[in-house]
Each structure stands twice: as structure tokens, then as C-alpha cells.
């Protein structure tokens, strides 16, 4: 298939107008040694039906869909209202560029403005940006921002922060002279306050705290922020499961200075990990150091309201190497989907969905910890994920459950050698009681 | 047209657009008592489904888009986004795949990643690719980190990165976040890298030269192999910003130009829709020497299937939580498969044909600072119109009245008042001619009635918006009392 719209006559006339005799002549500025001069070694072009058949075959080689899955760990399956797919697939939303010409991009800009407002409401903060790539890179941007704000160089990262987020923060900071120190967790699964206090000092730029953390445990953000503030360090709250904000107190109200994370839960499919939706919100005072695009309200020539991208003197296309971030393209279409999701669910729907997650995860935890030898690894309260300690080797249990088409969760030993035979189980509103009972029944038999 | 209200302005207590199924597990009454629960999310919207649907439908109608018409935004490669690619990316097998699922259960996803990497290797003439970077700028950052990691292993990460004055703003910004000082290299009279300047700047403390080829003027760096030789001779690396690869597919390969690292924008060259500002995807390709440093995990072929290799001791680590913008890669793969080798070459040829057709047709009407031959884009300026006090912004806003999207204006910095035009290969002759007619008409209007341009656009949903006021008194979210900033 080709997507060229010119006829042979068009091509001929256009070459004539330009004053060259052939297509090759258009590439005279490319020197011979840099030319390929052979056909690319790629499969021959496919028609639309052939392409769909091939892609269908490839997608069919994913057998994951046949499993009852309790995998979460930073990527969550939630209900996606039909309005989200329907409205977000409109060509007027799918096929524009970044809204550099605001007069013909008001749809995109107003959506960003509404998205920023919704994120501020959920996070309890003054300002939010138009989106970042994902939760991991957004967390890294938050750490870099903290360093710019107070010029301190030490960052405390909890061991209970998503391992992939930790790894991403390491990658982003390794060339900038920042020192990362790890803070352990206690028996509740929460950040160990004594360890945090011991490591906090006057060089500490920021204390990062994920809540609910990687183990699903809800942190005492207020206590962490208070400790950080005693040393004038910034408290960075990371939220990898944005749905929790529908019911749990806003991090901003608990003292967080920067709230960042992953909003994939708001209308984005699992999609093997992307595109997802990084978000960030903070206090008004930090505006000049804030990364990413921001939409703002203004007025037109006749005094009517409208929206534009603004405070762009922070950005790479103006500040170049002095920019607050190198980000240019972000995740605008994902933010659109999240906005449709949030506005469709609305105040009561979001709260109810969040509550159902707590209730269902609680039910699952009760059922599973009632099995002989199975214990909750941590005592702390969780949102929709919890860690089980199994009485048998996890790889064996996992293999046997898989034979029954069940994925009970993410094993933790690979990233946490101290959590041998521990598994992180995620339960959202899409799982039914019978699904949870099926897991409990199967696990009972496997452990017998 | 009536202004579409913000959703918060039509919200009212008790309205709902969605109902959840009833809770099917026993309700545990006192459960919430143990949490710090919020009473409400203050001012979070409450609207009906009809309101949601009309709200977003009406908002969409105020957007311009590639599906509507010509979008010659230079360096952005706003080509047609084939619908079949979106369909491929909505196959349930891809949508439902969990990124932490065991590799045996997501062989299809790993196949997509591997095939895309392999095809990009062939197209770019490089040895390995990673699809983890989520956009071009993250690709640049990752690519520079690979170089730094390699140099550090050789003993000295070095201090400086050289960047031509015509470069996109992300280049210096990415180099900076990678811990490097940026040194600017001048362009010569043809808009190409000034070789003498490069030779002076190229020392043993230079980690890399970041070059865009063809550059942001649309000009091919004819001396690219000489440039590469110069950089390599002092132990540096040649980084290529692949934003303009659309000009070269099937014609010339960065690897054959002796480029060591490249990032490619799948949302430009490989037609994945830009979604109003993303998601993009910024795969990074490298020569063998840099392969051990690629972000992890890496997809490998094994026994007729695919595995994820996590144990990569030299890897720079992760730049993304999972595998990058996977569904974007599905669309790019579908695009490569539907075009095939001939289609990819024709794509570059016609992109260059269309651009040169526009260039030829607008010469004389607008000032062209650099006379060197151009490929996929051309950069005019407002120099002639400035005499009437008309700027590139006025010209752009007037184009909106003609129903067209304006060109890029914010760079290259070496052309003041730039009008950077990239038509891409998918445009119709009719749209190209409409654009040319509109541009020549505007040149005439600038001479005869400059105020008409100063007041443009006249026909859009909103009139010209005051960007200065927005930045001076920022209103960045809805509140009940918010008022639009006014005044100059």
C-alpha cells in the first residue's frame, strides 16, 4: 500500500516546474558514498487485508489473554467507559500536532487545561503540567526539579519505590552528580521512619515516597513530609496507581511539595506498558522550575477567553541547554483519554471505583490469608495490592497455577532477595468474586 | 460560534455519566476507618453522558488536524496517519497484554519489538536498536548517555558536546541533562556545518557532535563522511538527530554516513499519529561498539521465540517504566510492512519532490536566506514582508484564514523570522497548489494591506490569542473566580 496522492502526470509536471529531469536529480546533494544504491532488504509491501491478517497472527501469539491475572505492579486493568474509546478516536484529536497555533487548536488546549485542573484537584496542588512520558520518567523529572529548586545533591529513595522507577531515576541522575540513598521499609511495609531520620541531613534535596508503595501499602505521607521539612528537604509523593487518589487524602494536603506519578489507570489499556501517562503537580512557587508543557487561559483580540501553551521560557525550544527539561513531545492523547475517563466517571464514579478496589482487594486478602501457611507479608493497609508470603517456593507455585491458567501475581524475589516466596497480588474492580474464589481454591490445592 | 464551556461550568451535584456494577464481595463496613480518606474531591465534575459526548465532540471541532488538511509544520513531518495502523494497534492481543507478564505469554509483543528493531536497523544501516525511549527528546538523552557510558569506560567521559547553530532546541537540552557543556558550531554560507569551525572545536575533550541530517534547513550535510572522520579521529562519537529521516529512507542510511548513534521519531517518519502532542516514540540505533550500553531489558531471539535479557551489566539502565510506547511501535511496524522497500523509497522521493515544488513556486515571493539545494523541507523568512512591518507570525495567522496550518516559526535560529515548510509525501497536488496560492496572495496582502495580516486570523473559533498576557498573569487551572488575562 502506498499513501502517495500524486498521479504520474502530477509528478512529471512538478519535476518540470522545479527544472530537473528525474527524481534522482532531487538528491544530487547526497554524495555517492553516502547513497545506498540498492533496495532495502525488507519484506515486500502488504495490502490492507494481508497486513491485518499478519498483525492478527502476531497478536494471537500473545496467550496472556487466556489467563485469570492478578498482575499489577505499576500497570493496572480497570474499566474503560465506552465514551473514552469513542471520543478519543476522533481524527480531530488523533491527528493534530502539539498546539503551536492556538487559534486552531482550542480543543486540544482546553482538554489540557481541564486535565491540569483535574490533576490539581486529585493531587491537592496548585499547578499541573500537560503530561510527561510515564510514571518512571516523571519521577526522575521530579527529582531533577527538586535539585534545581534547592541546589542540594542527595536524594532519598525508598526501597519500596517501584524498582523500575528507581532504575529510571538512577539513569537520569547518574551524570549530574546526585547521590541516591536508599531508605528501607519496616514490618508494616511502610518506609522505615528511623532509617529515614538517620539518613536525612542538610544536603538532602528530596525525600521520595511512593504511596500506595510498590507493595501496595499506603504510606504515612504526612509523617514523611514532616520529617523532610524539618531538614528543609522537599517531599516528593509518587502515585503509581492514580485511582487511589479518588478515595485517599490528596498528597498535597499531607504536605507533599511535588506530586508525580502514573495515570495509566485513567482510561489507558495495559498495552504491554505504553503509551502511559506521566503526570506532575506542585506548588505555584515552583512554576519557573516546572518541566513540561503547560496550557493557560488568556483572551483573544476581542477579549474572549481562549487557551494557549504558556510559560514557555522554561522550555528547550527557547532556553536550549538552560531549559527545565528536554521534553518536547509528551503524552497529550493519553491525557485526553484520562480527561474523558475522569469526566465520565465523575466525582461519585471515581470514588466508588476506588472504594470497590479497596473492598475487593480486602476480600481477596482475607480469602487468601485464610489458607494454611499463607500470610500477609506486611501489616500496613493497602489499596488494591498486597504481598503474600507463601509456605512453598514461589516459582513452583507459579508454574502450577499457570497450568490452571492463573497468574497469581508478580514474584518479588528478583528485585527483593529478602522477600523470598513473596508475591504481589493486585485486585481491581474488573475481577469478580468468582475470580478471586477461583484463585483461592486453586492456591489451596497447590499448597496442599 | 458559541464558546464551549469548561466541564466544571456545566457540572452539578448528582449528575452521572457512568454506573459501576454492584460490589459483588461482602461489604466491609469499617474498612475505610483505617485510612486517611478524603471526604470529597472538591469541584471534581458531575455531568451526564450526553454532556460528556457533546463536550468532547464540540471541542474536537475547534481543532485543525492532518485528517482535515495540509499541515506543513517544518521538522514535524505531519504526514497522513494510515487508519489501518490504528486498527492493528487496537487488536485485543496487544491492548490486553500486561508488561510484567511472563515472556512466554507475550511472544507476540516481543515479536513486534524485535521486528521493528530489525527493520529499523536495515533502514538506518545500524547494528542494534532500542524502542524504550518514549519520544525524540528521550531518545536523544538515551543516545548521549550511551556515548557517555562508553567514553567513561574508555577512561574519560569528556566534557563537551558540539551542536550546530541550526539545531533543534532539544539537542542542547538533552546534552546538558547528560552532564555535558554545549559548544555551538557555526553554519557556513550554505547553511551547512562550518568545517573550519568544527576542526577548531574538535578536541580530545569533545564527547560527540550532534548533527541533524538533512539539517533543519532541509540541506544535506554533503561533507558528512568528512565530518564523521574528523570527530572519530579525536575519539569522539557522531550522534545524528533523525527527526528528518523522512528525506532519506531507501536513499541513504545514517550508518553508511558513519553515524554512531541515531534517534528516530516514529511519529514523524513512520506516520504514527501525533495526538495533539504525543505519544511519540524515539527509538535509538547504534553501531556495535555501543550495543552493550543500550537500555535494558533487551529483546533477543531464542529457539524460534523471543526472550527478555535483563542481565546487561554495561547497560545505562532504564529510561521508561516498561518497554516504551509499545502501541506506537505496533503502528510503525504496520506502516513499514505496508510500504515495503519500494514504498519507503518513494516516500522520501515524493516528500522531496513536494518540498522542492513549493520552494520553486514561492521563490521571489518570500526571502530564501540559503540557496543550497534542499530535500524534504525549505526555510523561507519574513524579510521582504518586514519592510511593511509584517512578521512571520502575521503571515502564519493569515494562513489560518485560508484554511491551512501555518509552517514552523520557532527555529532554526539562524533564520530570523523563519517559515519552515515541510509538506511531506502524502499531500495532494491540489493542496500543494492551494498552499502556494495562499502564500502568494498573502505576500500581496502584506504589501497592500498589512493591517489585514496583523489582525488575522479573522475566521477562526477564536481570534488572535494574547500569549504575552497568558505568561504575565498565569491562570493554569479552572477556579470559580478565574478571569482571562487581558491587555498588551
> Per CATH, what is the topology of the largest domain in chain A?
Aspartate Aminotransferase, domain 2
How would you characterize the largest beta sheet of chain A? Answer: 7 strands, mixed
DSSP summary, beta strand count of chain A: 15
Q: What is CATH's topology name of the largest domain in chain B? A: Aspartate Aminotransferase, domain 2
Question: What kind of oligomer do you see?
Answer: heterodimer
Could you tell me the mean pLDDT of chain A? 97
What's the CATH H-level homologous superfamily of the largest domain in chain B?
Type I PLP-dependent aspartate aminotransferase-like (Major domain)
Helix content of chain B: 25-40%
Provide the structure class of chain A.
alpha/beta
Summarize the helices and strands and which ones pair or pack:
The complex is a heterodimer of chains A (448) and B (488).
Chain A: H1 8-18, H2 48-60, E1 68-69, H3 82-88, H4 91-94, H5 106-123, E2 127-128, H6 135-150, E3 154-158, H7 163-173, E4 179-183, H8 193-199, E5 204-210, H9 221-230, E6 234-239, E7 258-262, E8 278-282, E9 295-299, E10 305-309, H10 316-319, H11 332-369, E11 375-376, E12 385-389, H12 394-403, E13 406-407, E14 410-411, E15 422-426, H13 433-447
Parallel strand pairs in A: 1-13, 3-4, 3-5, 5-6, 6-7
Antiparallel strand pairs in A: 2-8, 7-8, 9-10, 11-12, 12-15, 14-15
Helix pairs in contact in A: 3-11, 5-11, 6-7, 11-13
Chain B: H1 49-60, H2 83-89, H3 92-95, H4 107-124, E1 128-130, H5 136-154, E2 160-164, H6 170-177, E3 181-185, H7 195-201, E4 206-212, H8 224-233, E5 237-241, E6 261-263, E7 284-286, E8 298-302, E9 305-309, H9 326-362, E10 378-381, H10 383-386, H11 392-401, E11 418-421, H12 429-448, H13 450-454, H14 467-472
Parallel strand pairs in B: 2-3, 2-4, 4-5, 5-6
Antiparallel strand pairs in B: 1-7, 6-7, 8-9, 10-11
Can you walk through the features of this model?
The complex is a heterodimer of chains A (448) and B (488). Chain A is α/β, with parallel strands linked by helices and 448 residues long. Chain A has 13 helices and 15 strands. Chain A has two domains: 64-71 and 346-447, Alpha-Beta Complex (Aspartate Aminotransferase, domain 1), CATH 3.90.1150.10; 82-340, Aspartate Aminotransferase, domain 2, CATH 3.40.640.10. Chain A has helices at residues 8-18, 48-60, 82-88, 91-94, 106-123, 135-150, 163-173, 193-199, 221-230, 316-319, 332-369, 394-403, 433-447; strands at 68-69, 127-128, 154-158, 179-183, 204-210, 234-239, 258-262, 278-282, 295-299, 305-309, 375-376, 385-389, 406-407, 410-411, 422-426. Chain A has a seven-stranded mixed beta sheet with strand order 2-8-7-6-5-3-4, with helices on both faces. A four-stranded antiparallel beta sheet of chain A has the order 11-12-15-14, with helices on one face. In chain A, strand 11 and strand 12 form a beta hairpin. In chain A, helix 3 (82-88) packs antiparallel against helix 11 and helix 5 (106-123) packs parallel to helix 11. Chain A is globular, with a radius of gyration of 25 Å. Chain A starts with 7 loop residues before the first helix and ends with a helix. Chain B is of the alpha/beta class and 488 residues long. In chain B, 34% of the residues lie in helices and 10% in strands. Chain B has 14 helices and eleven strands. Chain B has helices at residues 49-60, 83-89, 92-95, 107-124, 136-154, 170-177, 195-201, 224-233, 326-362, 383-386, 392-401, 429-448, 450-454, 467-472; strands spanning 128-130, 160-164, 181-185, 206-212, 237-241, 261-263, 284-286, 298-302, 305-309, 378-381, 418-421. In chain B, the strands form three sheets. A seven-stranded mixed beta sheet of chain B has the order 1-7-6-5-4-2-3, with helices on both faces. A two-stranded antiparallel ribbon of chain B has the order 8-9. In chain B, strands 10-11 form a two-stranded antiparallel ribbon. In chain B, helix 4 packs parallel to helix 9 (326-362). The relative contact order of chain B is 0.13. Chains A and B meet through helix 1, helix 2, helix 3, helix 4 and helix 5 of A and helix 1, helix 2, helix 3, helix 4 and helix 5 of B.
Amino acid at each position: 500500500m502506498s499513501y502517495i496522492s500524486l498521479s504520474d502526470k502530477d509528478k512529471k509536471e512538478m519535476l518540470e516546474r522545479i527544472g530537473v529531469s528525474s527524481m534522482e536529480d532531487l538528491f544530487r546533494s547526497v554524495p555517492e558514498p553516502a547513497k545506498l544504491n540498492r533496495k532495502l532488504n525488507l519484506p515486500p509491501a502488504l495490502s490492507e487485508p494481508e497486513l491485518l491478517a499478519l498483525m492478527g497472527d502476531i497478536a494471537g501469539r500473545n496467550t496472556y489473554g487466556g489467563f485469570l491475572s492478578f498482575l499489577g505492579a505499576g500497570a493496572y486493568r480497570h474499566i474503560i467507559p465506552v465514551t473514552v474509546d469513542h471520543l478519543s478516536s476522533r481524527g480531530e484529536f488523533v491527528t493534530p500536532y502539539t498546539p503551536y497555533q492556538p487559534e486552531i487548536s482550542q480543543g486540544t488546549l482546553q482538554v489540557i487545561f481541564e486535565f491540569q485542573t483535574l490533576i490539581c484537584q486529585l493531587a491537592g496542588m496548585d499547578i499541573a503540567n500537560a503530561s510527561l512520558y510515564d510514571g518512571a520518567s516523571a519521577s526522575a523529572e521530579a527529582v531533577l526539579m527538586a535539585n534545581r529548586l534547592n541546589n542540594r545533591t542527595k536524594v532519598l529513595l525508598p526501597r519500596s519505590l517501584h524498582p523500575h522507577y528507581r532504575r529510571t531515576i538512577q539513569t537520569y541522575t547518574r551524570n549530574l552528580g546526585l547521590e541516591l540513598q536508599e531508605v528501607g521499609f519496616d514490618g508494616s511495609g511502610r518506609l522505615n521512619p528511623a532509617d529515614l531520620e538517620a539518613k536525612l541531613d542538610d544536603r538532602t534535596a528530596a525525600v521520595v515516597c511512593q504511596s500506595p508503595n510498590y507493595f501496595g501499602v499506603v504510606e504515612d505521607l504526612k509523617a514523611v513530609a514532616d520529617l523532610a521539612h524539618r531538614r528543609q528537604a522537599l517531599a516528593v509523593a509518587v502515585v503509581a496507581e492514580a485511582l487511589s487518589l479518588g478515595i485517599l487524602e490528596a498528597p498535597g494536603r499531607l504536605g507533599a511539595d511535588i506530586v508525580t506519578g502514573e495515570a495509566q489507570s485513567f482510561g489507558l489499556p495495559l498495552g504491554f506498558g505504553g503509551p502511559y501517562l506521566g503526570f506532575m503537580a506542585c506548588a505555584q512557587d515552583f512554576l519557573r522550575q516546572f518541566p513540561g508543557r503547560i496550557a493557560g487561559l488568556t483572551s483573544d483580540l476581542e477579549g474572549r477567553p481562549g487557551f494557549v501553551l504558556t510559560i514557555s521560557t522554561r522550555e528547550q525550544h527557547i532556553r536550549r541547554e538552560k531549559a527545565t527539561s528536554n521534553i518536547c513531545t509528551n503524552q497529550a492523547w493519553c491525557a485526553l483519554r484520562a480527561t474523558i475517563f475522569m469526566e465520565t466517571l465523575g466525582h461519585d464514579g471515581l470514588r466508588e471505583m476506588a472504594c470497590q478496589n479497596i473492598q475487593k482487594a480486602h476480600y481477596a486478602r482475607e480469602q487468601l490469608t485464610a489458607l494454611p501457611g499463607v500470610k500477609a507479608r506486611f501489616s500496613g493497609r493497602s489499596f488494591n495490592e498486597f504481598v503474600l508470603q507463601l509456605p512453598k517456593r514461589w516459582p513452583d507455585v507459579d508454574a502450577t497455577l499457570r497450568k490452571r491458567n492463573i497468574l497469581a501475581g508478580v514474584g518479588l524475589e528478583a528485585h527483593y532477595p529478602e522477600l523470598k516466596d513473596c508475591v504481589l497480588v493486585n485486585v481491581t474492580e474488573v475481577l469478580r468474586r468468582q475470580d478471586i474464589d477461583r484463585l483461592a481454591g486453586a492456591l489451596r490445592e497447590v499448597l496442599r | 460560534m458559541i464558546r464551549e464551556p469548561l466541564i466544571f461550568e456545566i457540572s452539578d451535584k448528582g449528575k452521572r455519566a457512568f454506573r459501576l456494577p454492584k460490589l459483588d464481595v461482602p461489604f466491609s463496613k469499617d474498612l475505610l476507618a483505617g485510612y486517611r480518606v478524603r471526604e470529597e474531591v472538591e469541584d471534581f465534575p458531575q455531568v451526564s453522558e450526553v454532556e460528556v459526548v457533546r463536550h468532547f465532540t464540540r471541542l474536537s471541532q475547534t481543532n485543525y488536524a492532518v485528517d482535515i488538511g495540509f499541515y506543513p509544520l517544518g521538522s514535524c513531518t505531519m504526514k497522513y496517519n494510515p487508519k489501518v495502523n490504528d486498527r492493528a494497534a487496537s487488536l485485543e492481543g496487544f491492548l490486553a497484554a500486561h508488561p510484567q507478564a511472563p515472556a512466554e505469554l507475550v511472544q507476540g509483543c516481543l515479536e513486534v519489538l524485535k521486528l521493528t528493531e530489525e527493520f529499523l536497523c536495515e533502514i538506518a544501516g545500524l547494528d542494534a536498536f532500542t524502542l524504550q525511549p518514549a519520544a525524540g527528546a528521550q531518545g536523544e538523552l538515551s543516545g548521549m548517555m550511551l556515548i557517555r557510558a562508553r567514553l567513561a569506560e574508555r577512561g574519560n567521559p569528556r566534557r563537551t558536546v558540539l551542536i550546530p547553530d541550526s539545531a533543534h532546541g532539544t539537542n542542547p537540552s538533552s546534552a546538558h541533562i547528560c552532564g555535558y557543556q554545549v559548544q555551538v558550531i557555526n553554519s557556513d554560507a550554505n547553511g551547512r556545518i562550518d568545517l573550519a569551525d568544527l576542526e577548531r572545536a574538535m578536541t580530545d575533550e569533545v564527547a560527540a557532535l550532534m548533527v541533524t541530517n538533512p539539517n533543519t534547513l532541509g540541506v544535506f550535510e554533503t561533507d558528512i563522511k568528512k565530518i564523521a572522520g574528523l570527530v572519530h579521529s579525536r575519539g569522539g562519537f557522531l550522534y545524528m538527530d533523525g527527526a528528518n529521516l523522512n528525506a532519506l529512507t531507501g536513499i541513504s542510511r545514517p550508518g553508511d554516513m558513519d553515524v554512531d548513534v541515531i534517534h528516530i521519531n516514529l511519529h514523524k517518519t513512520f506516520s504514527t499519529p501525533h495526538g495533539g502532542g504525543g505519544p511519540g516514540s524515539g527509538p535509538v540505533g547504534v553501531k556495535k561498539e555501543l550495543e552493550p550500553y543500550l537500555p535494558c531489558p533487551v529483546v533477543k531471539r531464542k529457539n524460534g521465540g523471543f526472550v527478555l535479557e535483563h542481565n546487561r551489566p554495561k547497560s545505562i539502565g532504564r529510561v521508561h517504566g516498561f518497554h516504551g510506547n509499545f502501541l506506537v511501535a505496533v503502528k510503525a511496524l504496520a506502516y513499514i510492512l505496508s510500504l515495503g522497500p519500494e514504498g519507503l523509497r518513494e516516500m522520501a522521493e515524493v516528500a522531496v519532490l513536494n518540498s522542492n515544488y513549493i520552494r520553486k513556486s514561492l521563490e521571489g515571493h518570500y526571502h530564501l536566506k540559503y540557496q543550497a539545494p534542499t530535500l524534504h523541507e525549505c526555510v523561507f523568512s519574513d524579510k521582504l514582508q518586514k519592510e511593511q512591518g509584517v512578521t512571520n507570525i502575521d503571515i502564519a495567522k493569515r494562513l489560518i484564514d485560508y484554511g491551512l496550518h501555518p509552517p514552523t516559526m520557532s527555529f532554526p535560529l539562524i533564520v530570523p523570522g523563519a517559515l519552515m515548510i515541510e509538506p511531506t509525501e502524502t499531500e495532494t497536488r491540489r493542496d500543494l497548489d492551494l498552499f502556494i496560492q495562499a502564500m502568494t496572495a498573502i505576500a500581496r496582502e502584506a504589501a497592500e494591506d498589512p493591517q489585514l495580516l496583523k489582525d488575522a486570523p479573522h475566521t477562526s473559533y477564536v481570534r488572535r490569542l494574547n500569549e504575552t498576557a497568558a505568561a504575565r498573569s498565569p491562570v493554569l487551572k479552572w477556579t470559580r473566580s478565574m478571569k482571562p488575562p487581558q491587555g498588551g
